[in-house]
Amino acid sequence: MKELPIHIQLDLKSGKTLYEQIYEYIREEIRAGRLLVNEKLPSARFLAQDLQVSRTTVDMAYGQLVAEGYLVARPKRGYYVSALEGLYELRELPFAGQKSGEGRQMESSQEQSDACRYDFSPNVIDMRLFPYATWKKITRNILVDAKSHMFALGEPQGDVELRTTVCRYLHGSRGVNCEPEQIIVGAGNDFLLLLLEKILGRHIHVAMENPTYVRAYKIFRSFAYPVSLVPVDEKGIRVDCLRKTDAQIAYVMPSHQYPTGVSMPIGRRMELLKWAAEEEGRYLIEDDYDSEFRYKGKPLPSLQASDTAGRVIYIGTFSKAIAPAIRISYMVLPYPLLERYRRECGFFSSSVSRIDQTILNEFIRDGYFERYLNKMRKHYRMKHDLLLSEIRPLEKEFRITGGNAGLHILLTDKKGRSEAVLEEAARSQGVKTYRLGDFRMGEASDIGEESGFLMPATMILGYGGLSMEEIREGIGILKKVWS
Amino acid sequence: MKELPIHIQLDLKSGKTLYEQIYEYIREEIRAGRLLVNEKLPSARFLAQDLQVSRTTVDMAYGQLVAEGYLVARPKRGYYVSALEGLYELRELPFAGQKSGEGRQMESSQEQSDACRYDFSPNVIDMRLFPYATWKKITRNILVDAKSHMFALGEPQGDVELRTTVCRYLHGSRGVNCEPEQIIVGAGNDFLLLLLEKILGRHIHVAMENPTYVRAYKIFRSFAYPVSLVPVDEKGIRVDCLRKTDAQIAYVMPSHQYPTGVSMPIGRRMELLKWAAEEEGRYLIEDDYDSEFRYKGKPLPSLQASDTAGRVIYIGTFSKAIAPAIRISYMVLPYPLLERYRRECGFFSSSVSRIDQTILNEFIRDGYFERYLNKMRKHYRMKHDLLLSEIRPLEKEFRITGGNAGLHILLTDKKGRSEAVLEEAARSQGVKTYRLGDFRMGEASDIGEESGFLMPATMILGYGGLSMEEIREGIGILKKVWS
């Protein structure tokens, strides 16, 4: 591990602080290419000694360089010169598709996506058909009539008009059985999960499906909660494995598990509900993230709809079905938790403006949302059907699953290739695909051999953000490189 | 408990499953009014036996009916026909004043306030002068130009345009020294504090001023943090007492302590900054909640402005200065915490829509905010001056403090009366006043005899929401009942 000398001439009489001088020197060295990507910098202790300055001065300079993206700090290893692309820059989103607010995020291999011509991200929605004009019209009309009460702070749970509308919508489309008073409206799923942590209290043990939605996993990990990972089979979370954990809470996606695409059949649902009802204080968090898009068969009702014991916390969002910018999610609390929320968390004020709540309320109430959903269902179904028919020739090489719903499918390799090999083969021809492995959390040993489901290399293809033409072309390439 | 017979003729040869037949039969009975609201259905076990079908079949039929709202399941009692409307009432806010979003909330005696004609709440702002037309115009213009990128999810920290504008504003008006990259924009102070908990990590010990902002106290208590209460004297938080605690974090309001109205002089600020810099990992949270309104003397710079060691986390909001509905607050992080945020919490997505960020950005950038603040400063100063001059005759009975800034003053009794007696005397004549005691947290023994400051009965009079006429009349009554 070579320690690189930094030859700075510090000037005590210059107008600049020592920290600024160190910062500027290193920044210029990087910009000029004299310090190269992945080169290790001297430790702060070493450099401070070398320059005869305080450790804090060097820490501040390094901190600034990290913050600005010139350096990257690797825990227990030190500071390294960053690869400059995409660090803290805002990646410009392609016009066609938008990263969904509550997007199921790919964390590990996103950097390369920009370079690819066809990005089969499972985390992009198509905003080309969004009724911008209608949304603007509603906003304009609301503002014309807006009196000061519109600029006041609303109820902590959200305005009753919106909650009533959401309640009716959830009931009609998802079979969710609740009263408006059980709904909490918040600025995104993340906010609601932060709030839920406070409602559930400390010392809670959470179980999650594995593979799972990475952001939710990170959020639970950021709580003071132990997280157990439970394998998923072709019916969803394995309740037999769940029973081996000490979990009180299980976070599940029964309608369309992310990312496996599994829909949980009623039998497994009943098993899961039974588990929850068996002990005081057990709850299921149902994340019904893209229930709006189902193409084959009857829409499955939510798990909450089958819950007779009041053990399901239902969470959903409008970021996916409407637009990522609509920072409005909702959480339906069973009565015992609602009571705890009111007693212990009622002081958290609403995180959504009344104006936004009113716009959304009218958009749903006046039927625009339903019409938009119908249009999008047709639109996504066209893409979905095209993708499935185009990909058919690959059925010799792959088992294809996860169709019929949502915005992505999965291809499980039959020929013993690795995900890395498949990803790279596609990437080299300008097609970005995603690896199921990136959604598997924890150590390999956590997963256990019992979870053979989708264990061979499995690639994820999302189609939300691609046009028909792009799907056809992208799959055309995959057929060549993956067969 | 009568069990109602269900006379279904099940048809094994029909295309429909047994569950669907049961479901449809009962649904029709309800629709036709043959089953009445609140009528109890046979238990699933009973009906299964009666129809010679499996229990699961009946469970599924009932489940579907509950899901669709025809039946309601009452735990341990069974299934009942639902009443179709849900009831929920929203309390209407008074037109004149709005509860401020980040309002310093009175928790204990709010219920009575409705009955009072004159409400001297310290938690109401005057929205009568808000430039609604300007706000609407900006919104309209933004929507006209809005392309799909406006409906996309923005950066987790907030859009860089808004952060740059906020940075400039904070520097100019509060002397805050920071870069846009240090700012995190969020949907309200509560959200930012929830995020800050994740940034600071577990096992943090917090100190707060006592008396203090009750909502922040509750929020910290809802964290897994021990909270120490530190007395306030006429210079602010007592650093000598702070030193006796194990706190790493102190939450302070140096510019205008809430609710005591104390402005911390530079000497005390230096003491406080020194405390923070002395040990690794110590930070001050500066809540600069109503720094915009100062009527006498130069505006005090923020504590952050004097911080050379990077130990101040600066938090502020637009809910008070603009409107409670503007769910936009900001937090300025010192670099080490910024780095930790990016490393460990960067996955929390933005809680504010880009549209709202853009409206606010233009409102500030184009000078409307400054103009509105100037107008409000004049307006509040008029009320402030009127209140002080009207209340002068009570100087024999009370020591009057906390003036010169903010939207409330304090009256400390010289005659040994209790806060309860004073409050009730006013309330009986239709004037709602507030007790300082309600802002003192913890046990009496926590406060300690050393905190003699404002210890005799002290009443709080806020004037944000009252008109000049109401102030005159309300104080007129107080002069009679309190002298």
Q: Could you walk me through the main structural features you see in this protein, from its secondary elements to its overall organization?
A:
The structure is a homodimer of 483-residue chains. Chain A is of the alpha/beta class and 483 residues long. Chain A has three domains: 1-91, Orthogonal Bundle (Arc Repressor Mutant, subunit A), CATH 1.10.10; 133-369, Aspartate Aminotransferase, domain 2 (3-Layer(aba) Sandwich); 373-482, Aspartate Aminotransferase, domain 1, CATH 3.90.1150. The first copy, chain A, contains 15 helices and 18 strands. In chain A, the strands form five sheets. Chain A has an eight-stranded mixed sheet. In chain A, strands 14-15-18-17 form a four-stranded antiparallel sheet, covered by helices on one side. A two-stranded antiparallel sheet of chain A has the order 1-2. In chain A, helix 7 links the parallel strand 7 (206-210) and strand 8 (227-233). The longest helix of chain A has 24 residues, at 368-391. The first copy, chain A, is globular and about 70 Å long. Chain A starts with 17 loop residues before the first helix and ends with a helix. At the A-B interface, helix 3, helix 4, helix 5, helix 6 and helix 7 of A face helix 3, helix 4, helix 6, helix 7 and helix 10 of B.
